Amino acid sequence: MAAVGALTLSIVAPAGSAGASPLREQDDTVTVAGVEIACRLTFPAGTPQGAVLLLPGSLFSDVDGNYPTMNLKPHLYADLAAQLGERGYAVLRMAKIGPGTGSRTLDPQAAARHAQFATRADVAAAGLALLRKSAPAHPLIVAGHSEGALVASMLASGADAQAIDGVVMLSGPATRIFRLMRDQLVAMSPSGTGADMTTYDQTIAAIRAGEPLPAAAGANPQTAMLAAMPAFSVDYLRSTDRVDPVAELARVRQPVLIIQGGEDASVPPAHADSLYQGRGKLPTELARFPGLTHFYKVAPPGISPMQSMALDTVSEPAVAERIASWARRFSM
What we know:
Largest sheet: 10 strands, mixed
Strand content: 15-25%
CATH architecture of the largest domain: 3-Layer(aba) Sandwich
CATH superfamily of the largest domain: Alpha/Beta hydrolase fold, catalytic domain
Number of helices: 12
Oligomer: single chain
Order of helices and strands: EEEEHEEHHEHEHHHHHEHEHH
Number of strands: 10
CATH class of the largest domain: Alpha Beta
Structural class: alpha/beta
């Protein structure tokens, strides 16, 4: 059961769009499995020519796509909402459940359901219902960023499939979560050295089997974070790892647009290729942005992956333009 409730209204100017018509924003919430989740709706100046549900990725992000517990402020979701709003689309963006994001646990017992990744699709469905009620516009597009792309696939192939006209994969991974994490660790190892992944592999095997972690996990930098996680978080990762992103996207029958930044150190460009190939003959387009990061920023030369995450410049509006131009085809 999901519930919604409007909170506030505000008028904002589109990001990086001096002189553009102001947008209207409305704060709202959905309640799913004992947790109240913050949402923010962006409305264009005129009648919406379409609507976009924007689903967040991993980690604890607020509605703007900032990460308060990490003091990172890429504000990608706020940028996309403003840029799409300027192009005539209503947008609903959602916070993740977690500290500092605006979420609130109302029923701890019911909230235990959120340890299962499938509940993210329930949260997305509640957001979809709120968007359809608040902005009943066509076409209706679901766009998921990073891990949220996997949620978008699940939503679009589920009970709400008939309501969804298209799916946008924003830097979505093609491998299961523990494989993605492994590849990230290997990529961060010093150049020219072979990373010893023995402890990581043993730790992941134990998590997948539901067994105690090896004694070495807590002292190894590759696995210390996993070893320190509460059981709730480990359960969530385990359930996430059971989902194959390529197989999930192959179940989506709506047209799909895959967006990929060429300087993405979190989800490298090869993932987009795998997702595209996995679609076979289903209607799919792949849009590459060679100079952009995971949050669609232009990164200075030589910047490290962590430094690129900390960039707080306006996200490149060409991404929103590509989404808007693709979505316009469904309104003809």
